[in-house]
Amino acid sequence: MVLLDEVLGAQRDFTNGLGISYPPNLVNDVDGSDPLISTVPGHHFRDTEIYRNGDTRNAIRLHEVTKYNGKFRILVFAGVAAHTRSALRSLRAAVDRQAPRFQHAVDFLTIIAGTGRAFEEHLGVPQFGKAYWDIDLGAHTCYGVDTESGAMAVLRPDGLLGHVASLDGFDRVMRYLERLVVPRETKATTNGHATGKELGDVFIENENNLAMPEEDGPESKEAGVVVQ
Description:
Number of helices: 8
Largest sheet: 5 strands, mixed
CATH class: Alpha Beta
Number of strands: 9
Order of helices and strands: HHEEHEHEHEHEEHEHE
CATH topology: Glutaredoxin
Strand content: 15-25%
Number of domains: 1
Helix content: 25-40%
Structural class: alpha/beta
Distance between the termini: 43 Å
């Protein structure tokens, strides 16, 4: 029984599919990625624990909040905000300016090292999509992300890592997506009074807004999709 347990344990990642990987190619951008994360593009992103705001005792799983929905996901590892705040401000400006073209195909998620009372107050900028605390730094440690510099990880729609960039490398993320996704022309406004958002927030007509945080809950469905 001990030997059987050892054999099953050694094959666990292959059995559940997490041990499957693919070589570098157009989707698995190994050469174009920064070596800021221990996972290599083409491999599955490992699961780890993160925490909702206001609930620092009950951890949830990263895979639980990144369920497959047919979209790419950009995970922003914000690191310790005291060290990364300047880079986050630059990233916020770049996302507001460029990301709306890929609104239909990309979701954001922010993982913040440490904890605080409110995400925006802690970061110094609005968070990118849904946000979660990495209270014990377990998530940053799991992926080898330096908490003083942070990183961005672009997950493919099937959950494998596709591209890695620094927080100031959003232009490279856009070039990666441009090879794989047809961008949309969108009408955006930064007039807070007209959109009901705060001044400077970007609102895209007829689209879920990547730049704004989402509430936890059921995934929204595109018009015309029948839910069984």
